[in-house]
Amino acid sequence: MFCGEHLGDHRADCFDPPTEENASGDSNTASGTGGSPDVAPDGSVVRNTSAPTQGSEAEDSKSTGPRGIFWLLIGAPIAIASRITGAAKTVFRYPTTSLWNLTKIVLLLGIVVILAGQVGIGPVDTSPGELASPLADAATNATNPAEIDEQQVERLVREGINERRADRGLTSLSSSASLQEQAQLHSEDMVGHDELAHNLPGSTTEERLSMASCDTGGENVAQTWYQNRVDTAEGERYIDDEGELAESLVTQWMNSPPHRENLLRKEWSDTGVGIELTDDDKVYATQLFCA
Asked: How many angstroms separate the CA atoms of 131 and 123, rounded?
C-alpha cells in the first residue's frame, strides 16, 4: 500500500494507517465509488475527491461570486505553494527517482522550446544583419549614391564646351561616334589603372585618334569626384548631379591654359567625350578632338 499523504510506502508516517477494510475500499475507489486515493501504474497517487472534472471546470470558469474571487486570490497561491512543498519533500525523501523525473521534465521542455523556435513560435536566433527595419532601410537608401547617367554628363560636357566656343565666335563641335567610342575606352582604361594619363600600357593618344580615322586631333583628360566636396578655382563645391559634374569638368579644363587652348582651337570640327566612374565615385573623363 502507498500512503496518500506522503506518496510512499511508509505506513509509520501516515496519520491514519490503512487497514485491510480500507484497502478493499481503495479498490472500489479505482472504479470511482470511494474517496480514498487511486494508485496509478507509475506509483503516483490521485485523490478522486479533489480532482475536478471537465464539467466542474467549465462551471467554475463561469462563476463570478465570492467563491471564485477567493479561489483566485487565496486558493490558487496556496495550491501552488502546496504543490511546490510536496515536490520538495519528494525530492528530499527520494532524491534519485525525483531527480530523474525532473531531468525528464527538463528534457521535454527543452524539446518543446526547440520545436517552437523552429516553427516560429518562440525566439529564433537571428543575426542583426538579417533583421530589416523600414527606417534603417530608408536611411541607407538616402545615403547611398544615386546612379549617374554618364551619357547625359557626356552630352552636357559637349554643350558646355560649345557654349564657350560660341562666346568666342568659334564654330560648334559635332559629335563623332568613333571619337566617342575611343574616348570612352580610354576613360575605362584609366579607371582600370586608377591613373590619370594620356598614355597607358597598350594605348596612346595617337593610336586612339588613328582608330577613330582622325589624322589631326587632340585630347583632354580630367579626374574629379561625384557626390563629394571638391576644391575648385572658385572654391569648394559639392557635386551631386549630372549637370554639376559636367560643369565642373568644363570649368576645370577652362581654368587650365593648355586644356583651354585645346578646347578653343578653331580648326577642330568633331569631338567625342567619355565619362567613367570608379566604385568610390571617382570620375575619369576623356575628350578627343579632330579637325
From this structure: 13
Range in 84-88, 125-129, 211-215 the model is least confident about: 125-129
In terms of Cα–Cα distance, which of 198, 192, 185, 220 is closest to 282? 192
How does pLDDT run across 120-133, given as a tens digit for each residue? Answer: 444 434 333 333 33
Residue indicated by cell numbers 480532482? 51
Burial label, 63 (beta-carbon count in 10 A; 0-12, 13-18, 19+): exposed
Asked if 157 and 275 touch (Cβ cutoff 8 Å), the reply is: yes
Of the candidates 207, 215, 206, 237, which has an alpha carbon nearest to the alpha carbon of residue 224? 237
- For the chain, how far is it from start to end, CA to CA, in angstroms? 118
Residue 216: is it exposed, middle or buried by C-beta count within 10 angstroms (0-12/13-18/19+)? exposed
- Pairing assessment for the beta strands 174-175 and 270-277 based on DSSP bridges: parallel
Where helices occur in the chain by DSSP H, the ranges are: 20-29, 54-62, 66-70, 76-93, 95-118, 134-143, 150-167, 177-193, 205-211, 242-254, 257-263
Give the other-Cβ count within 10 Å of 219's Cβ.
Answer: 21
Taking the C-alpha atoms of residue 77 and residue 72, their distance in angstroms, rounded to an integer, is 8
**Main-chain dihedrals φ then ψ at residue 198, nearest 5 degrees:** -80, -35
The alpha carbons of the chain give a radius of gyration, in whole angstroms, of 45
pLDDT in tens, 142-192: 334 457 899 999 999 999 999 999 999 999 999 999 999 999 999 999 999
> Could you tell me the sign of the dihedral formed by the alpha carbons of 154, 155, 158, 164, in that order?
negative
Cell representation of residue 114: 526547440
> What is the length of the chain?
291
Name the DSSP letter for residue 39. Answer: E
